Amino acid sequence: MGRKWQCEWQHSQEEVFQAYHQAADPRLRTRLQALWLLRDGRSLEEVASLTGMAYRTVQPWVRWYRQGGLTEVTCHRQGGGSPAKLTAAQTQALKAQADTGAFRTRWDAMQWGLDQ
């Protein structure tokens, strides 16, 4: 099993657990769960396994915590996906159309976008 993670904790185990328990975003919950498990004395390898994440995925979360505690962990967003394919005006028009109840499925919305 991997070596235990060494850190000067800025938060108690209870504070980390409360942050984990209160987080609504699933990605953030996983990060905070990992930190809570680390705070409990688990190794990085064990935490990665328990959270279903790759070891290398957990490493940046640890780095973020070391840099600024829970605040730093919660403000980070990984990824971001591909750039939007619609302009701001097209997005606004799509939202307005959706607000009227014109779309029953996402396919209806996609077809509407193609027709524009």
Number of helices: 6
Report the principal-axis shape: elongated
Largest sheet: none
Quick one: how many beta strands? Answer: 0
Radius of gyration over C-alpha positions, nearest whole angstrom = 20 Å
Oligomer: single chain
Q: What is the succession of H and E elements? A: HHHHHH
Helix content: 55-70%
What class would the helix/strand composition place it in?
mainly alpha
Average predicted confidence as pLDDT: 88
Number of domains: 2
Beta-strand percentage range:
under 5%
Low-confidence stretches: none
C-alpha termini separation: 57 Å
InterPro entries: Homeodomain-like_sf
Protein name: Transposase and inactivated derivatives
Layout of secondary structure:
Elements: H1 13-22, H2 26-39, H3 44-51, H4 55-75, H5 88-99, H6 106-115
Protein described:
By secondary structure, this protein is mainly alpha-helical. It has 2 domains: 63 residues, no CATH class; 33 residues, no CATH class. It is elongated and about 60 Å long. The mean pLDDT is 88.
Sum this structure up briefly.
Helices cover 65% and strands 0% of the residues. It is mainly alpha-helical.
